[in-house]
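Trying the structure run again after the queue cleared.
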Amino acid sequence: MPHKVYHGKTGVIYNVTQRAVGVIIYKRVGNRYIEKRVNVRVEHVTKSRSRDEFLRRVKENAVKRRKAKEEGIHIHLKRQPIMPREARTVDAKENKPETLYPIAYETTI
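Done. C-alpha cells:
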C-alpha cells in the first residue's frame, strides 16, 4: 500500500499488471510538483468522481440552452457563487437582550 501522502489523491494510470496498477501522481515538494510513479494494488484504487459533476452540468446546460433557444430568451449558464444571506432585523420587544458574564474560576484544593 502506498504512503499516507498519496491517500485520496487523483492520478493517471500508466501501467496495468495482473494484481496492481501503476499510477502517476503529482506530489508537491517545496514550490514545485514532482511526478511520482506509484504501484498500487487494484483493491486500493477507485474511479475518480471529480468529472461526474461536470458532465452532469454539461447535460443540464444543453437542455436549458435548447429550451431557451426555443422560447427565444437569454439564459445564464455559468455557475454563480453563493451570495450573502438577505438582511433581516431582530425584534427586541419580546426578545430582551441579555448580558453575559464569565463564570469566575474556582479552585478547590
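Helices lie at 52-71. Worth checking whether this holds up in the mutant runs.
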